[in-house]
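Entry: YegS/Rv2252/BmrU family lipid kinase
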Amino acid sequence: MQHFSARNGCHRWWNRFAPRGFTMDTRQFERGTMGNKACAIINRKSGRGSDEESFAQTLKLLEDRGVEAILLKKPADMAKAVDEAVAKGFDPIIAAGGDGTICGVTEALRGKGPRLGVLPLGTFNYFARSLGLPEDAEKALDVALNGADSTLSFGEINGKVFLNNASIGAYAAVLEVREDIYKNWGRSRLAAYWSVIVAMATLYRSLKMKITVDGKVHQMRSPVAFVAIRAYQLAEFDLEGVEEIEDGKMALLAARDSGRWMLLWRAMRIFFRGARKGQDYVLLSGKEIDIETSAARRFARDGERERMAGPYRFRLKENAIPIRVPHPEENEA
């Protein structure tokens, strides 16, 4: 990790739509009262922050606002960086990056007290957009420093945090292809969409799954099981499950098992907001979801892929950590 002091510019190495799930504390809507010093944990490789010019602009913005900047050299540094920030008394601790970075900071921060701030620097920024955060970095940083205090709910898959969604099956394969495409084309939404087409055309594996939702068992075959806890991304692609999430449940979408080319066609229907429940996917919803498959599988959470042995237990953790969000009047404007 690399640490930049916004106070004196020196640096040193050190080892280190109002969405459901947020509750507003109206007693704390006073602006500009930042009792503790803030820090930002930055993922240099996140979408908009990955080029030199954008990275320099981010550091300058943080320095101008008196925010300590902590650079991650590798994802494995995340937990240590958060622990050291907590020990130094930073509050809020700002996650500067894409959804994967914000998820990592959230996981490391749970149960430790300081408020989470969000500076979205990723390609899609679904989580930040679900909070109503502005896309402009300076305005988003202002929310992290002076916004309303609220609480954040998140999901867990076998104890690992996710903020938007987690899935097993084909989507993890898409992310693997996406990283290769990013290396050649750079990070962009167009490259991300193209990776879906490439992956669906070349990779297909149907999974036999036993899915238990709030005690009710469902047997099915599907290439992917996608569990969402925020409505924003589903609404953007005109997928069902929004009402279920707003009712405090998780939404599980499983694609129909109909072969590689039909899966590709259905992916295209999602892009063009034409996918339909029953015809293209199955929707289940509940507060507890368990998925059993025959062997360990790749899984993905908030755009980052990993490996994990099943069974996969999805749980919703309500009002789990404090977070800074826009003031209500800002979202109404």
